[in-house]
Amino acid sequence: GEAGNPTGQFAELLIPSFDLGVQQQDITSNNYKVMGGLAGSHFGWDWDSALGITRSKAKSTTKNVMSYSGLVDTANLAPSVAFVLVNGAIAGEGSYLPIGANTPEVIESIRTSMTRKSETEVIVADLKGSRELMQLPAGPLGLAMGVDVRREKIKDTPDAQLVAGDILNYGYTGTEGSRTAGALYAELAVPVNKAIEVQA
């Protein structure tokens, strides 16, 4: 029943929201890595160890997106529009014009920004050592041993407005988790002769 609808039935009209302004995304990222180690020789062992931590934080802000609650508020829909269907819900009447000029006050009431925050952390530690166990006819019998531990965490948090479904035309994902991985190892080097060495 609206002027300009030639279909004679309900039709979907997709329009860009130019009046909200160009969407802008600002991303700030901070990263650092610290690593230290020790090495030495004690009790017949040559050993070395390391401990390190890596952290990263990122913040992404997207400006000039449309608020669902701001749009369907009865103060923000034009009386000249019979109805507006948004996300399956019929919005009331007010002052927002889907096509046409809108006042700065109306635009500001439906325009919003959203922020996403992400954090990652990795902590690693290792210790390894080697020594000669005995002298064989072809050379020394060598032993190497070590331990390695890694702790990883990640957290990716979308904007609360997105989680609540209040930002139009955007989906979201969120992630939070951690894991720990470790390893133990040992190796023997057995010289058979001057040209052949067996490792186990």
| Gross geometry | rod-shaped
Strand order of the largest sheet: 1-2-5-6-7-8
Major beta sheet summary:
6 strands, antiparallel
The average pLDDT score comes to: 86
Q: Please give the count of helices.
A: 3
User: By helix and strand content, what is the structural category?
Assistant: mainly beta
Helix percent band: under 10%
Give a verbal description of the structure.
The chain has 200 residues and is mainly beta. Helices cover 8% and strands 56% of the residues. The protein is built from 3 helices and 8 strands. The strands form 2 sheets. Strands 1-2-5-6-7-8 form a 6-stranded antiparallel β-sheet. The protein has a two-stranded antiparallel ribbon with strand order 3-4. Strand 5 and strand 6 form a beta hairpin. About 2% of the residues have low confidence.
Quick synopsis:
The chain is mainly β and 200 residues long.
